Structure formats: C-alpha cells, structure tokens
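Q: Please design a sequence for this.
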C-alpha cells in the first residue's frame, strides 16, 4: 500500500482553544476513509486544514511525501481537491462554467481545448452532461452536489476531501452520491476522505473509518473494528447494539448515557 496522505502533529485552534492538537494519521492510496465523531470533534476542521482553508499553527501535511503546507495555493490545488457540504455562495454560472473552475490550478491565460475536454469528461462520468448549460442555482440539492464533485474531479488531483457530502440530501441522493464516490475511487485509484455524521452510511461505503473525539483519534480501522458498542458509548455517549447487515455493520442506538453512567431512553 502506498501512503498517499500523511498528517504529522497537526495543531489548530480558535481563539486559543485547540480543536486539533498533535493530530497524526496516514491514509493509503485508493481508499474511501470516513472521519466520524460528534459535533465539535474536529472532523470538518481537519478537512479544512488539509485543504488549507484553515492554516494550522504547526505540523505537516504530506501528499506523496511532499509537504502541502509549504506549497503555494496553486501547487497545493493540483494535489488536493475539496468538496464543501453545499455551495458557499450562489453561483450565477452554468454547470459547465462551475466545473471549469476546477481547472484553475492548471490554467494559463485562459481555458484551452484540453481544459474544456476535461470538463466534458467528468460531466459524462457523473452522468450530468445534459445539465451543462443549466444554471447551477436552478438545480436540485442532489444535482448541485454532483456538480461540486465534478468540479473537484476536474481539478485532476489524487485526493478528494469531502465535508458532509450527503447531509442535505434525501436518501436516494445520499446513496447515489456515495455510489458515485465508491466507483470513482475504485476505477481511478483516488483517495477520498469524507467527514460524515451518518455512521451507517459511512460503514457501508468506507474501506476505513477514523472515529474522533475532542480533536483526537479514538478508534481507527475497518468499520467492523471501529463501530463497536464500547466506542459508541465513549465517543457519542450512547448505548447501542451493532448488527451486521449485508457486508457492513449497522448501528442501532438504544439510549443516551447520563453523566452518572445511567442510561436514559428517548
């Protein structure tokens, strides 16, 4: 296995409070890795530090053994692509133009035939080429999410970072997006790192899971090893049973655990 991404001793905080402190992990090539944990555990912060949306106070982020934090933003954007939870602004552009934005790290003075060809390639890959001339703002949530993934693919990197890519979607579009990601990772040997709340969706589609609490990794491994009742109680404060459905574990929450150790239903 090739170590695609390595994070060494990453530290980041807001107003003097550390969200991540001496955080380290290594992720191999061609994997879907889900980062799970309760609100405030540092999932999204970690994703944004890797993409340099946030600047860590210290530490290293290595992609193919090269330090991302010592590159300029254009160089970094050729190695890592970011898919936000939803559009941070209302694009007044067509789908084609939004996806073409992913080519910016590779552009000269203007887009050429190769850049436009890459856009058509990823639109066809995601099955949304018929939306090319539609306005992004007029699309459904599921369609918008596919366009944002297409924009990241047009960036032509080996790593995709996704921050809650299914949180605002109905169940059909959740499965659709995750199926697309799994197919892309397997066919193109991409590495996809996904911050996600839905434990059962993560278990179904992930090769590996990292479970975080207060900026630290509490559990790390295949879904069967991470999603166990002891970890769910320690991280989420719940009693749960875990059953195996198909090829993946399935979490069934039973009750909350109170501060005195007692459990409470409802």
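A: Design:
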């Amino acid at each position: 296995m090739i170590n695609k991404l390595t994070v060494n001793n990453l530290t980041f905080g807001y107003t003097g409070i550390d969200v991540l402190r001496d955080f380290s992990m290594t992720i191999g090539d061609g994997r879907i890795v889900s980062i799970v944990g309760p609100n405030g555990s540092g999932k999204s912060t970690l994703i944004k530090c890797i993409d340099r949306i946030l600047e860590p106070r210290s530490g290293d982020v290595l992609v193919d053994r090269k330090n991302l934090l010592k590159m300029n933003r254009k160089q970094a954007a050729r190695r890592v692509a970011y898919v936000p939870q939803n559009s941070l602004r209302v694009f007044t552009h067509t789908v084609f133009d939004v996806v073409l934005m992913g080519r910016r790290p590779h552009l000269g003075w203007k887009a050429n035939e190769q850049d436009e060809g890459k856009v058509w390639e990823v639109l066809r890959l995601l099955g949304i080429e018929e939306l090319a001339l539609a306005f992004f703002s007029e699309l459904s949530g599921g369609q918008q999410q596919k366009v944002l993934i297409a924009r990241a693919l047009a960036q032509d990197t080996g790593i995709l970072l996704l921050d809650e890519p299914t949180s605002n979607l109905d169940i059909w579009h959740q499965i659709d997006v995750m199926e697309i990601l799994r197919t892309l990772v397997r066919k193109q040997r991409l590495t996809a790192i996904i911050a996600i709340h839905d434990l059962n969706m993560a278990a179904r589609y992930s090769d590996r899971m990292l479970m975080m609490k207060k900026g630290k990794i509490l559990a790390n491994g295949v879904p069967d090893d991470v999603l166990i009742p002891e970890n769910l109680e320690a991280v989420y404060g719940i009693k749960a049973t875990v059953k195996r459905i198909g090829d993946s574990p399935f979490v069934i929450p039973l009750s909350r655990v109170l501060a005195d150790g007692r459990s409470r239903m409802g």
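Q: Thanks. Anything notable?
A: The longest strand covers residues 3-14. The domain at 3-236 is CATH 3.40.50.300 (Rossmann fold).
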